């Protein structure tokens, strides 16, 4: 195989990375590897080469691992072509630690990243962290690749990757959950389905655009809308009374802890495999 990019896993996250990859690489230089025939069929329809496994790989190819964390150990043990790979390996798997990937594949150039599904519209928020063994060249290249999907920031401490998984990776789900609550209310109040969906989408989109310009923090935007004693203040009082902030904090903490334990589970599976 002679490819610049090999994407392993074209599920919800992997497929969302494709528009960004198409922006940065020729389609003819991308290979998508997925065990699901249905996913392969979908990707092949976009004019991209597909395969069910990596048989051999160019030393300089960049590999993006977007397969489920619990499939990683099996993938690593069965993908001999990737052992000792010299090129960059970017993992977007939740929880799986850099050391585990380095050990399983016997490689140095590993970057752990957490993008999110808005990558599909080139609006991902990606947080990434690099192994200390990553060459400067690979690091710069990784930043360029991850920036194809939207915004990308690098953190030094890998400990931040679990909260990043909770906040960035899962973020679109919580926001959509909140949006669904607002949409249901709109429908209950008499807006039709289309109107309700448009109202909520535009409110989120407009608020997102305000949050992304200048240096206004969310609470300032909240106060700008919340005239004291006015209608919005009544709603926010209810959220405060019901400890909304604590509820959100608890939810994010649960997701963070799960990301950490996923990392431990994959490491254990990998240790067991290598001692067999
Ligand atoms: N979804 C998100 O928003 C999000 C955000 C950040 C990070 N992530 C991470 O991204 C990864 C993928 O998540 P996802 O939501 O896209 O999962 P998904 O929708 O289940 O897609 C995973 C894909 O990988 C395939 N696969 C499984 N084992 C494989 C192997 N050994 N070789 C090649 N392909 C394989 C699966 O095929 P089968 O159906 O045949 O198993 C499936 O098509 C996970 O590690 C997740 O933690 C996800």
TrEMBL record:
Matches recorded under InterPro entries: 6-PGluconate_DH-like_C_sf, NAD(P)-bd_dom_sf, P5C_Rdtase_cat_N, P5CR_dimer, Pyrroline-COOH_reductase
Coiled-coil region list: none
Domain Pyrroline-5-carboxylate reductase dimerisation: 158-261
Catalytic activity: L-proline + NADP(+) = (S)-1-pyrroline-5-carboxylate + NADPH + 2 H(+); L-proline + NAD(+) = (S)-1-pyrroline-5-carboxylate + NADH + 2 H(+)
Domain Pyrroline-5-carboxylate reductase catalytic N-terminal residues, every copy: 5-95
Subcellular location as annotated: Cytoplasm
The entry's keywords: Amino-acid biosynthesis, Cytoplasm, Membrane, NADP, Oxidoreductase, Proline biosynthesis, Transmembrane, Transmembrane helix
Protein name per the record: Pyrroline-5-carboxylate reductase
């Amino acid at each position: 195989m002679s490819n610049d990019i090999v994407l392993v896993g074209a599920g919800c996250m992997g497929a969302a990375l494709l528009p960004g990859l198409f922006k940065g690489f020729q389609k003819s230089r991308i290979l998508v590897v997925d065990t699901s025939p249905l996913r392969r069929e979908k990707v092949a329809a976009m004019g991209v080469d597909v395969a069910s496994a990596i048989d051999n790989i160019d030393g300089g190819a960049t590999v993006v691992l977007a397969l489920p964390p619990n499939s990683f150990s099996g993938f690593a043990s069965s993908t001999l072509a990737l052992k000792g790979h010299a090129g960059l390996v970017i993992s977007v798997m939740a929880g799986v630690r850099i050391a585990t990937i380095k050990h399983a594949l016997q490689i140095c150039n590993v970057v752990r990243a957490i993008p999110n599904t808005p990558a599909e519209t080139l609006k991902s928020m990606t947080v990434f962290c690099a192994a200390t063994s990553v060459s400067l060249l690979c690091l710069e290249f990784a930043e360029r690749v991850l920036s194809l999907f939207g915004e990308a920031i690098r953190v030094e401490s890998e400990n931040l990757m679990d909260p990043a998984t909770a906040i960035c990776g899962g973020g679109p789900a919580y926001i959509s959950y909140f949006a669904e609550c607002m949409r249901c209310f709109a429908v209950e109040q008499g807006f039709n389905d289309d109107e309700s969906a448009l109202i909520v989408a535009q409110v989120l989109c407009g608020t997102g655009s305000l949050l992304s310009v200048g240096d206004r923090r969310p609470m300032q935007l909240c106060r700008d809308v919340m005239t004291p004693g006015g209608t919005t203040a009544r709603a926010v009082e209810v959220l405060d009374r019901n400890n909304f902030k604590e509820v959100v904090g608890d939810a994010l903490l649960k997701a963070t802890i799960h990301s950490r334990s996923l990392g431990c589970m994959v490491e254990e599976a990998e240790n067991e495999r290598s001692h067999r």
